[in-house]
């Protein structure tokens, strides 16, 4: 078993622990009414997108998401939350340094023995969700579970759905596809972006992601036999029929969208195996991006 397989199968246990510990981290996490920006790089940026949409949708306050390198320094926030598995990503550390005075910062990380320990005002450590694999799975979903629980949006049913996602076999026709598109709405747009990233990283697949309603505005033109279009969350009316009319394979997720992301992680590993690739050694990638000064 690869590192990434081992790590992605441990997610139900990680989520249960994160939900139980969320109350204890409350002082470090955004309070209702705060104007918040959530930042990250790669996978963490996509988790930031999902969390920002969840928080604002729950009426907790205006919440934006940015790639750390694209943070708008002309805007004012009560708190900036940085998601960083390694605690060493250059863009995140540089941003936290610039925000050192005037804006409260929180880092959610897997390793406190890194520079982020001193770069942020508050720290949330999910060390039990750390990973050996370059391809990120359980840290990302555990971080979002913690934040969902903080918002009062996590339930035991989410964990049950994750177990289902791990136990159900993947259809062979899905594994055999040569092109993959993930769609989302609201908070699941970030999850769709992350699902696509997993497919690219682990299996070098041609993969795209879009807001579901935008899929009709051009991207559906490349859908054909051998294409899988996977909806995370509820689909817009009529979209399934339009995709099927192209000859593409329509996958409508019936589980909690975060559990559907677990299924997509499994698909990335399965496609990698079918193509003779090692998902623990993705091409041109390292566990953390550290830029030379």
Helical residues, percent = 25-40%
Query: What is the second-level CATH architecture of the largest domain?
Result: 3-Layer(aba) Sandwich
Average of per-residue pLDDT values: 94
Please trace the helix and strand order, writing H or E for each element: HHEHEEHEHEHHHEHEEHEH
For this structure, the CATH topology of the largest domain is Rossmann fold
Cα-based radius of gyration, to the nearest Å: 18 Å
Domain module count: 2
Q: Could you please describe the fold and organization of this structure?
A:
The chain has 293 residues and is α/β, with parallel strands linked by helices. It folds into two domains: 3-150, 3-Layer(aba) Sandwich (Rossmann fold); 159-274, Glucose-6-phosphate isomerase like protein, domain 1 (Rossmann fold, 3-Layer(aba) Sandwich). It is 40% helix and 16% strand. The chain has eleven helices and nine strands. The strands form two sheets. A five-stranded parallel sheet has the order 2-1-3-4-5, with helices on both faces. Helix 2 (11-21) runs antiparallel to helix 7 (156-167). The longest helix is centred in the C-terminal third of the chain and has 18 residues, at 257-274. The mean pLDDT is 94.
């Amino acid at each position: 078993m690869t590192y990434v397989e081992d790590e992605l199968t441990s997610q139900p246990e990680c989520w249960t622990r994160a939900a139980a510990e969320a109350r204890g981290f409350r002082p470090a996490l955004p309070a209702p009414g705060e104007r918040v920006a959530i930042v990250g790089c790669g996978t963490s940026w996509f988790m930031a997108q999902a969390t920002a949409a969840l928080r604002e949708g729950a009426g907790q306050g205006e919440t934006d998401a940015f790639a750390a390198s694209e943070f708008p320094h002309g805007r004012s926030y009560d708190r900036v939350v940085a998601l960083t598995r390694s605690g060493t990503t250059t863009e995140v550390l540089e941003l936290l340094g610039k925000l050192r005075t005037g804006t409260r910062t929180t880092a959610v990380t897997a390793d406190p023995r890194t520079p982020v320990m001193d770069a942020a005002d508050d720290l949330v450590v999910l060390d039990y969700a750390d990973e050996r694999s370059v391809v990120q799975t359980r840290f990302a979903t555990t971080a979002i579970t913690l934040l969902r629980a903080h918002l009062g949006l996590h339930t035991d049913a989410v964990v049950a759905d994750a177990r289902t996602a791990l136990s159900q076999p993947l259809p062979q026709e899905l594994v055999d596809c040569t092109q993959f598109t993930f769609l989302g709405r609201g908070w699941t747009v970030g999850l769709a972006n992350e699902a696509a990233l997993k497919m690219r990283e682990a299996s070098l697949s041609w993969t795209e992601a879009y807001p579901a309603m935008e899929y009709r505005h051009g991207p559906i033109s490349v859908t054909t036999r051998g294409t899988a279009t996977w909806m995370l969350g509820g689909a817009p009316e009529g979209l399934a029929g339009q995709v099927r009319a192209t000859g593409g394979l329509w996958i409508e997720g019936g589980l909690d969208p975060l559990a559907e992301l677990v299924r997509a992680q499994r698909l990335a590993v399965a496609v990698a195996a079918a193509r003779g690739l090692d998902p623990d050694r993705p091409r041109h990638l390292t566990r953390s991006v550290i830029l030379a000064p």
